[in-house]
Specification:
The structure holds two protein chains of two kinds. Chain A has ten helices and no strands. By secondary structure, chain A is mainly α. In chain A, helix 2 runs antiparallel to helix 7, helix 4 crosses helix 5 and helix 6 runs antiparallel to helix 7. Chain B is 43% helix and 24% strand. By secondary structure, chain B is of the alpha/beta class. Chain B has a five-stranded mixed sheet with strand order 10-9-11-8-12, with helices on both faces. Chain B starts with a helix and ends with a helix. Chain B contains ten helices and 13 strands. Classes of the chains: A mainly alpha, B alpha/beta. At the A-B interface, helix 4 and helix 8 of A face strand 10 and helix 6 of B. Chain B: Its main location: periplasm.
């Protein structure tokens, strides 16, 4: 049971690790931005849109949440390519991940919207706010604030789930680690380093969300209390 | 103590002589029995596999048949898998191996090889319409390869630095990427490209650049000197008269690697 650790052999490949980390971060960043936009939009449609649109969003959410991410990315990267549309692999992967996270975000934000008390909407109506104004100021912002911790966790999960995409040819952190492993055969060390890197990344993503939260929700910034 | 030494020496000598005796005998034994036992792995198309009627065929099987008939004996296939090819031979369950056995220095420590009679080439493949004459032509292009294989190592070394190498987790995914047209240039073994071309005839992948050639020989026990002499002669004759190259071409859909012809001279 003696194993000679040789981290030097792995850390020699640091440019690959940096490159992989960068790809993972970029992937997470774009998916977060577009995921939240899609999620917020779909949640509004699902709670207050016309009947057919609600069903359509419901279909999207159920379909995406009940099929594996890997199959969704195969579909976008290989499936669409066989029909003649060739997306660059990183773009295909970003789209697949965004569509995926969008569905989860929809459900989380919907829970937030449904938690807004009817009295708030009636008050907005009494003040003469338009429908758009009501949604922007009375519904969406408090809804997001309320589900913000759940959202942050979901996006950390998204960052971790992006490792799946290495199998469709994305050279993100996990893919890079596999390459180092097949070069050095020091798989134990590679996965120790990989674990530490993902942990650091998760801390970074969480810190990013905390800062974003302070910027987005002045009420919380000033009062420091949960909604 | 002295007695013991003597006993050991006597044993060693008798063992050596029996081994020697059996060595001389394998060729004679095959002739006397009228049958040669050949270890073949029947799960590697197009090298050796069972056709739709479950009859063994493939370039290795046909070459083995030719060898048996030239020797004037019947062929008996000892079915094996990749890992058990050499153990089968060493435990005397088979007389020779003809099962896409690449000649390597590692294996030469254990068994003897005949002159190469076959080979396998890994290459960079691309559709006919894509013009690739040298590795420099790969610059700026995307190449599919399976992560961690010798192909990966070779193409990473040989491709220009601005070529984008897209690595997939296994050969199946690499093939999916090519069949689905996600990428058209791929570094892979010839036998897999034939499968891709069958499934996706529109693309017509053809070999553009050679990455590596492995040569394959008949595997024998090291002491079968007479047998090796006969088989070496057989390989030379049948490479020269075109019978072995014809079998190769029939199954592998490509010419026998020139390196095989060169080394067998």
């Amino acid at each position: 049971m003696t194993y000679e650790f040789d981290f030097a052999a792995v850390l020699e490949y640091w440019p690959l690790l940096v490159q992989g980390t960068w790809t993972t971060l970029r992937l997470t960043f774009f998916c977060t931005i577009f995921g939240i936009l899609i999620g917020a939009f779909c949640a509004v449609v699902r709670t207050g849109g016309p009947g057919w649109a609600r069903h359509l969003v419901g279909l999207y959410v159920e379909f995406i949440r009940n099929t594996p991410l890997l199959i969704q990315s195969y579909f976008l990267i290989f499936g669409i390519a066989s029909m003649g549309v060739r997306l660059p692999i990183l773009v295909g992967a970003t789209i697949a991940l965004t569509i995926n996270i969008g569905a989860y975000t929809t459900e989380i934000v919907r829970a937030g919207i449904e938690s807004i008390h009817r009295g708030q909407l009636e008050a907005a109506e009494c003040l003469g706010l338009s429908r758009v104004q009501t949604y922007l100021h009375v519904v969406i912002r408090p809804a997001l604030e309320r589900v913000y911790p759940a959202l942050a966790s979901q996006y950390v999960l998204l960052m971790l789930a992006s490792s799946i995409l290495s199998s469709v040819g994305v050279e993100e952190l996990f893919g890079m680690a596999n390459r180092i492993q097949s070069d050095t055969f020091r798989n134990f060390e590679v996965f120790v380093v990989l674990g530490v890197l993902y942990l650091i990344l998760a801390v970074i993503v969480r810190a990013g969300f905390a800062l974003l939260g302070l910027a987005l929700f002045p009420r919380r910034r000033k009062l420091g209390t949960p909604l | 103590m002295k007695n013991l030494t003597r006993l050991v020496t006597a044993l060693a000598i008798s063992l050596a002589t029996t081994a020697h005796a059996s060595a001389q005998d394998t060729l004679e034994k095959i002739r006397a029995a009228g049958v040669i036992r050949i270890a073949i792995d029947l799960s590697v198309p197009p090298w050796s596999y069972k056709d739709d009627n479950l009859t063994p065929t493939g370039s290795e099987v046909e070459a083995a048949k030719l060898l048996a008939s030239d020797l004037g004996v019947k062929m008996e296939i000892v079915t094996t898998n990749g890992a058990n090819r050499i153990p089968n031979l060493m435990q005397n369950r088979a007389d020779i191996i003809m099962s896409a056995l690449s000649i390597t220095d590692e294996r030469k420590k254990t068994i003897a090889f005949s002159l190469p009679y076959s080979g396998n080439t890994t290459s960079v493949f691309a559709p006919k319409r894509v013009e690739i004459k040298s590795f420099d032509d790969l610059s700026g292009k995307r190449i599919a390869v399976t992560r961690g294989t010798t192909n990966d190592g070779d193409i990473t070394k040989m491709a220009p630095s601005d070529a984008e190498i897209v690595r997939f987790e296994d050969e199946a995914t690499t093939m999916t990427a090519v069949v689905s047209n996600q990428l058209d240039i791929v570094a892979i073994a010839q036998s897999l490209v034939d499968l891709i071309n069958q499934k996706n005839p529109g693309n017509d992948l053809e070999p553009k650049l050679t990455l590596r050639t492995a040569t394959m020989g008949v595997g024998m026990r090291k002491d079968d000197v007479e047998l090796k002499k006969w088989i070496d002669e057989w390989v030379k004759t049948n490479l020269a008269n075109g019978k072995l190259p014809a079998i190769y071409k029939q199954f592998q859909k490509t010419d026998i690697p020139p390196q095989v012809m060169a080394e067998a001279k």
